[in-house]
Design brief:
heterotrimer, A mainly alpha, B mainly alpha, C alpha/beta, C: alpha/beta, Rossmann fold, six-stranded mixed β-sheet, 10 helices, about 25% strand
Chain lengths: ~350, ~300, ~260
């Protein structure tokens, strides 16, 4: 009975257009963010930060970027991993080649580089769509996989092929501890999520969705497909690029091109499908789900096997993980294309009306 | 010159195998409008089944003759592929009729993951052998034309023959049988085909089944060459540009596209690769496909795509 | 009536269009005057929809040109047409299914919104103000079309008649000078048709919008339009006021299926 919006009248369009028009939602989100900033650092241990929370934040950011392109603009990509790589390697090169380049500057420049490349690889989207576009994005994936492996300049002629960064610092705040890294990623994620939300609820977001839903009609009312699609590629690649730079700099510390392989691209796409195409919130749900499920299976399956008297190897667990992901993708595409986010909002809708079913 | 020819022929052989995988793509796309990303997983799955059954059967039945074991394993693997096709139609495609291409593509990506997972859970994830008795020794050819002749792998040669035979058989099947005609009708227009009484669902099962058999043959050839292992699934990724090049709806396109990509990869790797650090065959085909997407999206032999408002 | 029919605003000269070898339109010329309601009628497959698609640049005719307020366009495209003040609705409703009614109509304001990407991302003053100003404008259209109760509903969930109305609303949001309506009343019941006719007349009357419409319902066409063009097999066979067209023997034979 607490979740009621009785008496919350909107008297201006401004209040009607808030991100969370319902008062209870606004409070819930504020409490959640406050908890993420204050509560979690007090409660959680080092392992939890490094193995779960930091990857979750960064991959949420990447999934958010992918969702803008796939979920909002309807342009499929199988090359998101490559754009993470571009962000990471560009940031690395800016950091080592320009003296005194601040961390934040390198990350953002990484994002900008990724956005530029994104625009170039987005050009085929003006001619083709659907699976044809998927193949164009795969071309980006394979090309950059190769480039970062074979073109030594990108890795600053490192003999091992892997690059590493150290002494991360933002405005005098040194990101040594896991908590600092966590907080830094959290800040970036909150900021980018807000910016992304603003875009999708504004004019540009409507243009993206119009192109996604009915491109001919969109053009007829004055939306330029080129601007809408390429801006989606740019913004999406920017965010994915920043996420990639964070993945390299903050999460891994030192990395090889394999960190951003095609498997990463598929993983991001799966996050978006399972979490919910066309939903900012869904990106978080999807990332959480895909990060937590393997950890859960690793604990649960051997235990289950133990009950049945079987020993289940690590390899088997990973195969079962594949099966479950595959089955879930198909399940969500058939039953709920809007993913976990839709299940969540349906639940909320029910709660608003509860205890009256209609 | 001899070296160039060797490279060329090597490329053609590899291309023949790409053609086989591409053929699987084209068959399914023509009949159901689905771009089957799971073709690679099907190759892996079929090859795993074949490899493991041919290994297990002698123990179960007590027959030591490898030919019988291989034939039985082939039949079992084919049956398994039939079941897989039927399940895919039942559980997935039937529920996604009339969805957009991108949705179907993502669904097949899900199927690919599922098949890879199931295949390796049941059959294991080591490297397995398939030995169907293909000769491995290289032969020298055209010794009269070039000094020293050119070196060709017999196995490649037989593989190419098998692939060519399969392609010919499929072409006959499509052109001459009633089922083949129904398949072509479905490919042209789902609804029209349905309205004259062609059972869409059965056609889909058949076509996925045929694609499964094609996958099995491709899996056996690749598997006997390289061993059956997870990397087989990535063969599909290598064969993707082939269908863009040849045209998604064209059987001859798949063949010619496969040969062009096979040759292009080898030649570019040998002659261009050293200039840029090698390993370019991975993306060379994709870049070629990208050029086609920009300037001729329907490929060499495909039908022109016309959008109507 | 308040409106006064003005000068020629849109003039089509010798338009021919073919797909492959199939001729859809053959040498068609007609004009549209400011503030009038101009109907295009004809049997199925006469080329009516193709005609609209030519006017707003979805199809490129092989021959002929379009003169819009004295400006010559031999190559029109949908974006240019939109900038020039041409809006349209679609025969098989082409709404953005994943978006709410409000957002659908807001997309019609695209050309009038100027805030750049960064301003929108940060929702700085200008972007916010612009958004609110256009929202107010869109609400006027929502009021006009009497669809206040569904403004937040995703259009996919709406019944057919309401979707048609939203489609009209989206076109109106462009504040067009010329509005092309492709069978606005197809598939509606009598009451819905009456509503839609009233909206069309009101739009024409209140905003002075020039309207070009395709419609099958003869009664409606003859009632609301000022002048009618008749197409058959891609050729123009009649042009004039409803009464003139009704008396035209060629038109009668095309409609009654008499000898060609």
């Amino acid at each position: 009975m607490i979740y009621r919006e009785n008496g919350q009248f909107k008297t201006t369009y401004k209040t009607d257009q808030q991100i969370f028009p319902i008062l209870q939602d606004r409070w819930a989100v504020l409490v959640l963010i406050a908890f993420a900033f204050v509560g979690i650092p007090l409660l959680v241990d080092e392992y939890m930060f490094r193995a779960i929370l930091i990857p979750f934040l960064i991959l949420s950011l990447a999934a958010l970027g992918v969702n803008l392109l796939v979920g909002y603009c309807g342009q499929i990509t199988l090359g998101a991993g490559a754009f993470m790589a571009i962000g990471a390697y560009a940031a690395y090169n800016f950091a080592i080649r320009i003296d005194g380049m601040p961390l934040l500057g390198a990350l953002l420049l990484g994002g900008f580089t990724s956005a530029l490349v994104g625009i170039i690889f987005g050009v085929p989207s003006l001619r083709v769509r659907g699976l044809y576009l998927a193949i164009a994005t795969l071309a980006a994936q394979f090309f950059w996989d190769w480039a970062f492996l074979r073109i030594k300049w990108f890795t600053n002629y490192s003999t091992s092929g892997s690059v590493s960064v150290s002494n991360l610092e933002v405005f005098g705040w040194s990101l040594d501890g896991a908590v600092d890294k966590y907080l830094f990623c959290l800040i970036l994620l909150v900021v980018f999520a807000l910016l992304a939300k603003n875009m999708v609820r504004g004019a540009i977001g409507r243009q993206w969705m119009a192109i996604r839903d009915m491109d001919v009609a969109a053009e007829v009312i004055g939306i330029r497909p080129m601007y809408a699609k390429l801006s989606a590629f740019a913004v999406s690649s920017f965010i994915v690029g920043v996420a990639g730079a964070l993945w390299g700099f903050v999460h891994l510390g030192s990395w090889e091109p394999a960190a951003f392989s095609i498997d990463r691209s598929f993983q991001l796409l799966f996050m978006v499908i399972i979490g919910g195409l066309g939903s900012i919130m869904g990106s978080f749900f999807g990332a959480a789900f895909i990060i937590v499920l393997p950890i859960f299976l690793n604990q649960f399956l051997p235990w289950l096997g133990g009950l049945a008297g079987l020993s289940i190897s690590v390899a088997t667990v990973s195969h079962i993980e594949f099966m479950i992901f595959g089955a879930l993708i198909v399940f969500f595409l058939i039953v709920e294309p809007h993913g976990l986010a839709r299940l969540w909002s349906t639940g909320k809708e029910k709660l608003r009306l509860w205890p009256f079913p209609h | 010159m001899a070296f160039f020819l060797e490279t060329l022929i090597g490329g053609l052989m590899a291309g023949m195998l790409y053609s086989l995988v591409a053929l699987g793509f084209v068959l399914i796309f023509k009949a159901s409008g689905v771009f089957n990303f799971a073709q690679g997983a099907m190759v892996l799955f079929a090859a795993l089944a074949m490899a493991r059954f041919s290994e297990w059967i002698p123990g179960w039945l007590g027959v030591a003759n490898p030919i019988i074991a291989n034939i039985l394993a082939f039949i079992i693997a084919a049956l398994i592929m039939f079941v897989v096709a039927w399940l895919i139609e039942r559980l997935v495609l039937r529920h996604l009729v009339n969805q957009e291409g991108a949705t179907l593509l993502m669904a097949t990506l899900g199927i690919a993951y599922f098949l890879e997972g199931v295949g390796q859970t049941i059959f294991g994830s080591d490297i397995y052998k398939i030995d169907v008795g293909m000769p491995k020794d290289p032969v020298l050819m055209l010794e009269s034309v070039f000094e020293g002749g050119i070196l060709i792998n017999k196995e490649d040669f037989y593989a190419a023959l098998i692939a060519a035979a399969l392609v010919a058989a499929l072409a006959l099947f499509f052109q001459k049988t009633g089922t083949g005609r129904a398949l072509r009708a479905v490919a042209d227009d789902h609804q029209a085909a349905q309205s004259i009484g062609i059972p869409l669902n059965r056609i889909w099962v058949i076509v996925w089944c045929v694609a499964g058999i094609v996958a099995l043959v491709a899996g056996i050839i690749w598997g006997s060459k390289l061993g059956v292992q997870f990397s087989l699934a990535t063969v599909a990724l290598r064969a993707l540009p082939v269908v863009i090049l040849g045209g998604l709806t064209s059987v001859p396109g798949a063949i010619v596209g496969g040969l062009i990509i096979g040759v292009g990869e080898k030649l570019s790797e040998v002659y261009l690769g050293p200039l840029v650090g090698g390993g370019i065959e991975i993306w060379f085909a994709y870049m070629l496909a990208l050029v086609f997407l920009l300037f001729r999206p329907q490929g060499l032999f495909g039908e022109k795509i016309i959008d109507r408002v | 009536m308040a409106r006064e029919i003005g000068d020629i605003i849109l003039d089509l000269k010798g338009v021919s269009l073919s797909f492959g070898g199939v001729k859809a339109l053959t040498d068609i010329s007609f004009d549209v005057r400011e503030h009038e309601i101009r109907a295009i009628i004809g049997p199925n497959g006469a080329g009516k929809s193709s005609m609209l698609n030519v006017i707003n640049g979805v199809y490129r005719p092989q021959e002929g040109e379009i003169v819009l307020r004295g400006e010559h366009f031999s190559k029109m495209n949908p974006y240019k047409a939109a900038c020039a003040g041409i809006a349209r609705t679609f025969q098989n409703i082409a709404l953005f299914k994943g978006m709410s009614v409000l957002d659908n109509i807001m997309t019609g304001r695209t050309l009038k919104m100027k805030a750049n990407l960064l301003q929108q991302a940060f929702r700085l003053g200008a972007a916010e103000r612009e958004e609110l100003a256009h929202r107010a404008k869109v609400e006027e259209i929502i009021d006009f079309l009497e669809i206040q109760h569904i403004r937040k509903t995703p259009v996919g969930r709406l019944p057919y008649g309401l979707q048609k109305r939203v489609d009209l609303g989206r076109a109106l949001a462009m504040e067009p000078q010329i509005l092309l309506l492709d069978e606005p009343m197809a598939g509606m019941n009598v009451e819905e048709k009456q509503d839609m006719s009233r909206f069309i007349l009101d739009v024409n009357d209140q905003f002075g919008t020039t309207i070009v419409l395709i419609e099958h319902d003869m009664g409606v066409v003859m009632d609301i339009s000022d002048r009618v063009v008749v197409l058959d097999y891609g050729k123009k066979i009649g042009d004039g006021t409803p009464d003139e067209v009704r008396a035209n023997p060629e038109v009668i034979s095309a409609y009654l299926g008499a000898s060609h």
